[in-house]
Design a protein that fits this description.
The chain is about 25% helix and about 40% strand. By secondary structure, the protein is of the alpha+beta class. The strands form 6 sheets. Strands 1, 2, 4, 13, 16, 17, 18, 19 and 20 form a 9-stranded mixed sheet that branches. Strands 26-23-22-30-33-32 form a 6-stranded mixed sheet, with no helix packed on it. Helix 9 packs antiparallel against helix 10 and helix 10 runs antiparallel to helix 11.
């Protein structure tokens, strides 16, 4: 059995399969694995919290030479890490591959090793998997041989001659020949194959790692010379940061707005002097399963059997052969390999290693884009693209699973007291409100506002995102000193115009509606009331001519209510609707409606009268034809009766002759009537064509 190269630790032989595995792993690792890079701590230095349910975490440190960093993550965070992690070696070093444990089931990974430990195998099953390998056995004398196989044998129990016991036996090919050794007599077994020992240890290490499935280790490696600054950043799920405000109203001073940011550290790492940045906006963020190995199902194709053909020989391409020969002789890499080498080299350009002061300057320069304006008392605000952020001035220290409130706004603002009435919110009383103007340089995030008026709590409000210079209404209490009633009035529709275009009547109708608001002020001072009225894009505002404000779905009208005097506001809206009707399909009642309309031009009325006359002529012809058709139907019915009677009497009777004469006269009448029907049908068709031609060419604007 070959020995392990020096230096190596002495590996004590153990007396169980599990001890054997541990021994094999320890020996193989000590003998074969290269020296690992020194582990480096990578402390958390910067956190950026977003409103989309994620945070950006940045670690920074100084490394020297080749270094490795182990980071532990929850399994559910690995996908975000694989999607977003960024590594930088700021001193000209190289980024080596990042390694982590696969998510493949342990059973699937175990099957890839030379010894399969999937189903908790016995010692006999383990040895059965490595038939042909050389082992060193102590049982109790030391024996070295090649495993030929294992078998089960039987013997009678010594205490009871009737009991049969099965036991496993290993068959070895030794220098002296085949030798069978019962496994129960073996105190230790050692594999001579060092690689097999190493795989055995790796399989056991994988089994041990499976006991903790909620954490995964990600190993980062940096290669280079000298001391260098390195940075690692990644996106991870995090609770959104929130804001809350306090608005203090004073009689003779500007209102004071104080805002706080609420931040939670739900990670499993303490934040120690971390630079914290809070970013508003909602960048698109999603989770993609990059951790789960994906396997493509491939179709199984059965080979087809053909008659054997004679192999063909083909001449080589001399140009390609010469080119390959020259490349091999000159030692040049293939084009693809050269391109890849160039890409890797360009990805890590050389740069002088920074000093400690230089590292701090680089970090500050990298984050300079996040700091623009000043915000009292503890944050700086700036715009970043379509987003807005607060950069906390002082580093933040926050223990894991703890939360903090950080002051971000403490500035006077402009606010005007108003009463806001909306019948859908409260049909009787308006709400106490404020017309708030953001006079600060800050973008105010949405959140609750607690209002204090005159040193007392006045109510709670909620505000949407408010950019600098923007204005927003907030309401915080019910105004019991103001009462509002409304009365809706309906108006009859009015025809404003009628025209005919190629036989189609286009009628314009105007609809009008109005609502009258009555405001009663029981307070001792005049009050400004904002009436919110629904906005419908199909209706046009007539009165008042213009609202004080207009939002996406409502008008706002401003009314000043004096004490003890009712104030009124009437809102009138109109809608003009154009209706298209085919004149040919109008009944006489509808035509009469337009003939009596005051807004209908005389030439249109005259055309409608002509249409009525033509339709009456058609109806007259139709009535004549229908009357004759009824007479024909009656004669046909009478003839049927006569023929039935004639069949029941003799032909030489007087009655039979009477029936015969009547049939002759009816036939003459039927012939005449059918001719009239044909003439009337032709006349009807002629009149209808004339009406259609008339309408087709009729256009009266």
């Amino acid at each position: 059995m070959p020995s392990i190269a020096q230096p190596k630790p002495r590996c004590r032989l153990l007396s169980s399969a599990f001890a054997l595995a541990v021994l094999g792993a320890a020996c193989a690792q000590a003998a074969d694995e290269p020296a690992a890079e020194p582990k480096t701590k990578l402390p958390l230095k910067s956190v950026v919290m977003f409103n989309s349910g994620v945070g950006f975490f940045e670690h920074r440190a100084e490394v020297e030479g080749d270094a490795a960093v182990d980071l532990r993550f929850n399994v559910e965070d690995i996908n975000d890490l694989l999607k977003s992690m960024v590594l930088q070696d700021l001193g000209g070093g190289r980024i080596s591959p990042v390694t982590y444990t696969s998510k493949d089931p342990i059973t699937k990974t175990l099957k890839t090793f030379a010894i399969d430990l999937t189903d908790n195998p016995t010692l006999a099953q383990i040895l059965g998997q490595v038939r042909g390998e050389t082992v060193e056995v102590e049982a109790p004398e030391k024996t070295t041989g090649i495993i030929v196989g294992l078998e089960k044998r039987k013997r009678k129990a010594s205490s009871d001659g009737d009991t049969i016991i099965e036991f496993d036996v290993i068959n070895l090919l030794t220098e002296s020949g085949l030798k069978s050794i019962p496994l129960e007599q073996i105190s230790s077994i050692r594999f001579a194959n060092v690689k097999l020992n190493q795989e055995f240890g790796q399989a056991l290490a994988l089994l041990a790692s499976g006991h903790s499935t909620d954490k995964k280790t990600v190993t980062l490696r940096f290669s280079g010379d000298g001391k260098r600054a390195v940075r690692v950043g990644y996106i991870q799920e995090a609770p959104i940061w929130k804001t809350s405000y306090r608005l203090v109203l004073k009689d003779k001073e500007s209102p004071l707005l104080q805002g706080w940011a609420i931040v939670e550290n739900t990670t499993e790492e303490d934040w120690d002097n971390v630079r914290l940045t809070l970013v508003s906006g909602r960048p698109i963020s999603f989770v993609m399963d990059l951790y789960e190995p994906l396997y493509l199902q491939r179709p199984v194709v059965e080979p087809e059997l053909f008659a054997s053909l004679r192999p063909q020989q083909y001449g080589q391409d001399l140009a390609q052969s010469e080119q390959r020969f020259r490349g091999a002789a000159g030692g040049a890499a293939p084009p693809m390999r050269k391109a890849r080498s160039g890409q890797l080299a360009a990805a890590a350009p050389a740069a002088p290693a920074p000093t400690a002061e230089g590292m701090e300057a680089q970090s500050a320069a990298a984050d300079a884009g996040f700091v623009v304006g000043n915000v009292e008392p503890a944050a700086q605000a700036s715009e970043v693209g379509e987003l807005f952020q607060y950069a906390i001035d002082e580093p933040v220290t926050l223990q894991r699973q703890k939360s903090a409130m950080l002051p971000i706004v403490n500035s006077p603002v402009e606010a005007e007291k108003v009463s806001i009435y909306n019948v859908n919110v409260q049909p009787k009383h308006p709400l106490n409100g404020l017309k708030l103007t953001n006079k600060t340089d800050l973008h105010l995030m949405q959140g609750p506002i607690t209002v204090f008026d005159g040193g007392a709590y006045a109510g709670d409000a909620q505000i949407e995102d408010l950019a600098p210079g923007s204005e927003r209404l907030i309401s915080y209490a019910l105004d019991l000193e103001i009462e509002v009633s409304q009365e809706q009035k309906s108006h009859p529709e009015e025809i404003t115009g009628v025209k005919i275009v190629k036989g189609v009547l286009e009628a314009q109708r105007k609809f009008r509606r109005s609502v009258e608001y009555t405001i009663k002020n029981s307070a001792g001072q005049p009050r400004k009331v904002l009436i919110e009225h629904p906005f419908d894009p199909n209706w046009t505002l007539v009165e008042p001519a213009k609202p004080a404000e207009k939002t996406r779905d409502r008008y706002r009208f401003e009314v000043t209510a004096e004490p003890g005097k009712p104030a009124k506001l009437t809102v009138v809206e109109e809608m003009v609707n154009t209706q298209h009707l085919a004149v040919l399909d109008l009944d006489l009642g509808a035509i009469h409606y337009y003939l009596t309309g005051a807004k209908v031009k005389e030439e249109v009325k005259q055309a409608l009268r002509e249409v009525v006359a033509k339709r009456q002529a058609i109806e007259s012809v139709v009535n004549q034809r229908q009357n004759i058709e009824k007479q024909v139907a009656a004669i046909d019915q009478d003839q049927t009766r006569i023929r039935e009677n004639m069949g029941k009497i003799g032909q030489n009777t007087e009655l039979y002759n009477r029936y015969l004469k009547k049939l002759n006269s009816q036939e003459d009448e039927l012939e005449k009537s059918r001719g009239q029907i044909e003439d009337l049908t032709v006349e009807e068709q002629k009149l209808r064509r004339e009406l259609e031609d008339y309408l087709r060419n009729l256009t009266l604007e």
